[in-house]
Inverse folding.
């Protein structure tokens, strides 16, 4: 089943004829279908990655750098960030794979609620990202990023904090990210 967004005129028509509950149920069905499809695609991709010995985990920023490796931290404010440049998480890598597909059903309820809001064109707060070099790591907003990727969005609004690493730490991170980049970062 293909996920579809209703245009604003269709949403008005649903509401005008008193089918608000039907519209809500329609959107919920779309969100549940999207979750199941995204999770199934993620399982298949992780299996293929396993067969070809490719990494399928999100890069963990907290395991890549130590607090003493950071030279400066600066707030860059609100930015529009390409989703393909978000490659990891500050400290929450167990719920999603390298492409932010959900790895288990325990996040279903929250994922579906966020999908509902996005499909209904509701405003969501920006995600919080950490920028290191050209790449971004999620501090807050894993579910929003997962849903946005599942909906094939290209960009997301984010409050960005930039970490400037010391030379040796940046060199080590760059080597690790280069290895990761060769195997699993894909531009959708």
């Amino acid at each position: 089943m293909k996920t579809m967004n209703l245009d604003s005129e269709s949403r008005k028509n649903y509401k005008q004829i008193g089918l608000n509950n039907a519209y809500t149920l329609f959107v919920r069905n779309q969100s549940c279908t999207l979750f199941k499809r995204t999770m199934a695609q993620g399982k298949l991709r992780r299996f293929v990655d396993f067969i070809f010995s490719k990494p399928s985990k999100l890069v963990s920023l907290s395991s890549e750098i130590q607090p003493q490796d950071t030279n400066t931290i600066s707030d860059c404010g609100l930015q529009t960030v390409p989703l393909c440049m978000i490659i990891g998480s500050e400290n929450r890598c167990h719920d999603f794979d390298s492409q932010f597909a959900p790895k288990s059903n325990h996040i279903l309820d929250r994922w579906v609620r966020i999908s509902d809001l996005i499909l209904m064109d509701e405003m969501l707060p920006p995600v919080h990202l950490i920028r290191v070099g050209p790449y971004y790591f999620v501090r807050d907003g894993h579910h929003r990023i997962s849903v946005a990727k599942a909906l094939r969005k290209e960009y997301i609004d984010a409050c960005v904090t930039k970490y400037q690493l010391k030379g040796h730490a940046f060199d080590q991170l760059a080597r690790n990210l280069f290895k990761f980049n060769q195997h699993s970062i894909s531009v959708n």
